[in-house]
């Protein structure tokens, strides 16, 4: 595994997710693949790391051009394990997904898929998160694969600026073909939470989180607009949270 690009694959939907299998199928065309997958779904884990229980890694497969490990960790744990313990060299690319559900707009804050991507970019490793606007376990991914291959090839060839990674989202499969790719910014949208109060068999109250997505951003250069218009959206994201325009302006 030293001639072709070395590609690490992970996700937050668990090792059995259909989207993960589809992503692996594309990456196998491009390089040698190391899958580090969580043994259960980790959606909504964002940049969580495991610090109070041991991390356990189980080797599953070791074939020519493909290795698989399963862990009890989060997507970020998986990237850290790959970087520091499972590989003998830095990967050329880390990809995460294909997530069942959108990670556009504010969803990136909560996303385990994108947590893994941002973790990779901390060490300057080119990384891409791929997500589909369809939560169904048997979602159709066929219309995304040529774009995943195209985008990944470009990043393998040209790299990405240090600290920058890509948040790529696809519209749900429809009767019309995808119109193309748009590089856009993150829409200013949010989730409005709704905590449903329930009672367990022992008459103890508990709460179940629900809610709905609200997009009040009507501008035309956002990921939500691109997806609505049946384009692939690419948002370049960075790990620097500094509001640079206010440095030097705030006085305390």
Task: Give the helices and strands as they follow along the chain.
Answer: EHEEEHEHHEHEEEEHE
Radius of gyration, in Å, reads 19 Å
CATH topology: Stationary-phase Survival Protein Sure Homolog, Chain: A
Instruction: Give helix % range.
Output: 10-25%
The CATH superfamily label reads: Survival protein SurE-like phosphatase/nucleotidase
Architecture (CATH level 2) name: 3-Layer(aba) Sandwich
Domain module count: 1
What does the largest sheet look like?
9 strands, mixed
- As residue ranges, the low-confidence spans are none
Q: Write down the CATH class.
A: Alpha Beta
Structural category is: alpha/beta
Count the DSSP helices. 6
Strand order of the largest sheet: 3-4-2-1-5-6-7-11-8
**So what's the overall shape?**
globular
% residues in beta strands: 25-35%
Mean pLDDT score, rounded?
96
End-to-end CA span? 55 Å
Q: Give the beta-strand count.
A: 11
């Amino acid at each position: 595994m030293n001639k072709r690009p070395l590609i690490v694959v992970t996700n937050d939907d668990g090792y059995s997710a259909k989207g993960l299998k589809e992503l692996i199928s594309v990456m196998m065309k491009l390089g040698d693949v190391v899958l580090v997958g969580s043994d259960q779904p980790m959606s909504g884990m964002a940049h969580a790391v495991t610090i109070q229980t041991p991390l356990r890694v189980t080797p599953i497969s070791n074939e020519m051009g493909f290795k698989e490990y399963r862990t009890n960790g989060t997507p970020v744990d998986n990237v850290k394990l790959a970087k520091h313990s499972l590989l003998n060299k830095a990967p050329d690319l880390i990809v995460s997904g294909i997530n069942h559900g959108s990670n556009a707009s504010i969803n990136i804050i909560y996303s385990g898929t994108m947590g893994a991507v941002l973790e990779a970019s901390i060490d300057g490793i080119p990384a891409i998160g791929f997500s589909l606007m369809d939560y169904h376990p048997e979602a159709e991914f066929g219309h995304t694969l040529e774009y995943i291959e195209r985008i990944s090839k470009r990043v393998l060839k040209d790299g990405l600026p240090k600290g920058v990674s890509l948040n790529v989202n696809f519209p749900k499969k429809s009767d019309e073909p995808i119109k193309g790719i748009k590089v856009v910014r993150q829409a200013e949208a949010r989730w409005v939470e709704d905590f449903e109060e329930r009672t367990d068999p022992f008459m103890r109250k508990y709460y179940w989180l629900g809610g709905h997505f609200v997009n009040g951003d009507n501008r035309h250069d956002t990921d939500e607009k691109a997806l609505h218009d049946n384009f692939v959206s690419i948002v370049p994201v960075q790990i620097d949270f500094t509001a640079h325009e206010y440095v030097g302006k705030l006085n305390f």
